[in-house]
Amino acid sequence: MPIPVIITISGTQQYAQEEPETLEFVTEGEYTFEPGFASFSYTETEMTGMPGVRTTFTIEDGSRVTLIRAGAVNSTMVFEVGKKHEALYDLGVGGLLLGLSARHIGALLNERGGIFDLSYAIELEQSAQGFNSYHVEIKPRQEDAP
């Protein structure tokens, strides 16, 4: 059963010939944990450029990550170190074909939350575009209450 959590996300995007851009935000969300499986989800805001989009990360055995976005943007992206996966990124007015190659997946998660890291190379229409990374901290919501 999902528990309410506070999710702190630091995401960095670096595209060819550009300086890295880092965005950090804190949001409320839901978290589920079972041995070998963890999932957290939250609703994107104006700050991320995708207001109202529901984002869900699922981590299986600490080595396979699925990122699902649903709403104005729709996509299912799969990440495994050493494997390239393709995904359709549907923007509602058209889609983009992405190539995703995970460089690092790190998960220190338990029943109460923890830390999750993901870094990957991204291709757009089979052309190298850059590198993205996420650092996520998940804490039970009630810990922040007085």
Mass-distribution shape: globular
Assigned CATH superfamily: Calycin beta-barrel core domain
Low-pLDDT runs of 5+ residues are none
Approximately what portion of the residues adopt beta-strand conformation?
Answer: over 45%
Q: Please give the order of strands in the largest beta sheet.
A: 6-5-4-3-2-1-10-9-8-7
How many E-type strands?
A: 10
Tell me the distance between the termini.
24 Å
Estimate the mean pLDDT confidence. 90
CATH-assigned fold name: Lipocalin
CATH hierarchy: architecture: Beta Barrel
Task: Please bin the fraction of helical residues.
Answer: under 10%
Q: What are the secondary-structure elements, in order, as H or E?
A: EEEEEEEEEE
What is the SS-derived class?
mainly beta
How does this structure look, described?
With 146 residues, the chain is mainly β. It has one domain: Lipocalin, CATH 2.40.128. It contains no helices and ten strands. The protein has strands at 3-15, 21-34, 37-43, 54-60, 64-70, 75-80, 84-90, 95-110, 113-124, 127-140. A ten-stranded antiparallel sheet has the order 6-5-4-3-2-1-10-9-8-7, with no helix packed on it. The chain is globular, with a radius of gyration of 15 Å.
